[in-house]
Amino acid sequence: MRVLLDTFVESRPWADRVKADPVEFPHRYTDPRDVETVALLSASLAYGRADLFKPKIASILEGLGPHPARAMAALDVAGAKALLKGFVHRFNLPSDVAVLLLGMGRTLEKYGSLEGAFVARRSASWQTTLASFAKGLRAAAPEAEIVRKLGPIRGLHHLLPFAEAGAAKRLNLYLRWMVRGPDPIDFGVWKQVSPADLVIPLDTHVMRISKWLGFTKRSTIGWATAEEVTASLRQLDPADPVRYDFALCHYGMSGACPAKPIKANCQQCPLRVECTVGSKR
Are 199 and 241 in contact (CB under 8 A)? Predict the structure, then answer.
């Protein structure tokens, strides 16, 4: 299985798929503080259709200017109101994003980096650490003033979820970007966290393919399933279990491995010999 997956990962069209992924936004920057802040903004808003959320992210980044981390650290509520005027992305309103931006800015002032804040809240449980990190960012923002000046909060629990509530896909995605690498996808700018500790960013595509490859017997997306898939991948690569995530996710996203199997696709699939669905076709 490892040889099969390693070959599969090496054969994927990395550059083309980066353009279809929110990771393209932090790749525009070189300063680690810009990378980590832009990455969290991008991962947090990366839900729904990419052609809808990517222009929203791009608009915010344009308003923040060439040094987004510096801009966030200097941002106040009035500035956030001007920056986010008219912003709506599905569940989220300006106040939700203002909490994220101002929370990151205040966190940078206190810890010097988002990595520093994450490490300071590290516990024995990865799930608890993710939840504590999200809570810390939210607590750092002047939420009452934001609501008073920008209006109500609507989807903050979705934008910055506590990991106890589910698989925490976008937070785990963010951590993969920061901790793994550097390689063509992930940045490796966080040096105090090990790739061995990461949990798979479980979405519908990774869930489906993981089940068909036998990485999990579960049928629902949740934290227990994410841990089970990660445990299976850890048997293949204990030091870097989630390195297969990008290739598997985009294999589903691209339509090569759809939810409803297509015989012609299965016959050409390089994973079919280990796939409980593809092998039957």
Answer: no
Could you tell me which of 199, 198, 189 has the C-alpha nearest to residue 69?
189
CA dihedral for 93, 35, 225, 245, sign (positive or negative): positive
| List of residues 6+ apart from 264 with CB closer than 8 A | none
Domain boundaries, the chain: 1-20+194-281, 22-191
Q: Is the four-CA dihedral 153, 155, 157, 160 of positive or negative sign? A: negative
Which among 57, 67, 97, 59 has a CA at the least distance from the CA of 80? 97
Question: How many C-beta atoms surround the C-beta of residue 12 within 10 A?
Answer: 17
pLDDT digit string (tens) for 261-273? 999 999 999 999 9
CB 16 within 8 A of CB 51: no
Residue that is written with structure tokens 């206190």 in the block: 110
pLDDT at residue 12 in the model = 82
Give the span between the Cα atoms of 15 and 272, in whole angstroms. Answer: 24
CA angle 48, 243, 188 (to 5 degrees): 90
* pTM > 0.90: yes or no: yes
CA–CA dist 62, 206 (Å, integer) = 32
Whether 112 has a pLDDT exceeding 70, the answer reads yes
pLDDT per position as a tens digit, 199-241: 999 999 999 999 999 999 999 999 999 999 999 999 999 999 9
CATH of domain 1-20+194-281: 1.10.1670.10
Residue 272, classed as helix, strand or coil, is helix
Write the pLDDT tens digit of every residue in 167-190.
999 999 999 999 999 999 999 999
Say which DSSP state 89 is in. Answer: B
